[in-house]
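=== RUN LOG ===
request id: a7f3
mode: sequence -> structure
chains: 1
length: 388
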Amino acid sequence: MQTLRDLIGERIRANGPISVAEYMRLALYHPSLGYYARAVRRTGRAGDFLTSVDVGPVFGELLARQFAEMWQILDSRPQAPHSAPPGFDLVEAAAGNGRLARDILDAAARHHARFYERVRLSLVEVGSAARAGQAATLGPHASRLARSAATLPDAVEGAIFANELLDALPVHTVVMRGNGLREVFIDQEGSAGAFVEREMPPSTPDLVTHLERAGACLEPGWRADVSLEAPAWIAEAARALRRGFLVVIDYGYDAADLYSAAHRDGTLATFLRHTSGDRASALQDPGDRDITAHVDLTAVTRAAEAAGLTALGRLDQTYFLLGLGLDGLLEGDAARTAPFDAAALKRRLALKTLMLPGGLGSTLKVLVFGRDVGTPALKGLSFGGRMT
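=== RESULT ===
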């Protein structure tokens, strides 16, 4: 049986060295051998890394509050007499097997019944194995699932959200040399066919354009991992959004920080069984480990605004969740439950995990955009632009 390493090697021998972006695309998204294609779930204690979803259903509960408020904003528009109440498209990109959607709908059914009745759920997931498990994961909410596909729907009136999607999109790696910008490619050498790096001229002028727009001044020897696909995905989502909101939650920095001395080696990293690795580890056993790079938040915002969206807010996930009542949940749980209630203790620990500085709360950033919604004072944006 052909391995992904064999397949990549064949492509290099046939066409020459490939970009880091093409290598990542194969390693992560090959339809049968890629990292995201071969398993329904890669996160949690049994997986390779943790996300906010893994700390428990409270993350989905808080998101349900935000989406219910967004529905109320859209639902407040005047309606023709006797017309049916409008639905609300809730579109999750990189949805996996639907676990976060299940948490959101569980909370919506309990606390936001009118919103729940209007939800038309769409789950976007490239992995066929994960898609196959979505209906079972949704359980009693399976009837809310209007669409499950590998691509975004054409027309959305409601909210599109992506939790840790953009950092997993392929990036080009560049390095500044005395004679100008070079791009890092992946080649193969030796009898064992080891993957190695080769520096070559940039594969596309878009890389130079991206860095110029970012105002990046790379010093000789500095590397940068440039995502051309993240802004492209934002533009695609914006085209699909007829009216409503786009919510992006991801790891990233403004361009001034991302392309600075603090990140002179780039940000590409791998994760395998909760152990992070450097870019050299990305060349080992393709398809067996996650590969990620931090997002250029400036480029993402520019792409959204160029596509006609309004930037409504940007802040640390901690402050976004605090605006939605995270601290109230923590205080309420502590007041209602016995000190040695194991389930309650687990929930309080989950709440704190979402808040602690230096963890998921401060390293993840939340960006909210809107189309044809004005500039509403969303609860999740109550703390303004608080970022660390």
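=== NOTES ===
DSSP finds 15 helices and 16 strands in the chain.
Residues 224 and 266 are 4 Å apart (CA to CA).
=== END ===
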